[in-house]
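Please discuss these two lines.
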Amino acid sequence: MKFEVVTPIDGFEREKEFELSKLDDFFSMIEGVETGETIRLMSFGALKSLEFELPEDFIAKLEIENISDLSIFYIFVLQAQTSDSSMNIFAPLIMNNKSMKMGQIHLDLHELGLDSLNDILPKF
């Protein structure tokens, strides 16, 4: 499925379209139509989900009418040593499967009640 980029994706600001390929229930990949560069993704539901609201201008750009039309992914950076892999949970990709538009949203830690990243780490 091909998605038009309507809000830029960090590091891929020039890419206007991505092709989505589902790998399994948790992982997917997008490939830039012009550059061929790939980004690995993890499904939003694969981890404990955060609750957040989308700004009105973001909703308008993606032409969002119903939340059930959306797929949400975290960008997943896979390293040779698994323990060095990382994921950006505070800047998910939102894809509207109806309008075929996508973009990245940067979540505000203060609005999420996570003023300090230590708030999400387990306490020992």
Remarks:
- The chain has one helix and seven strands.
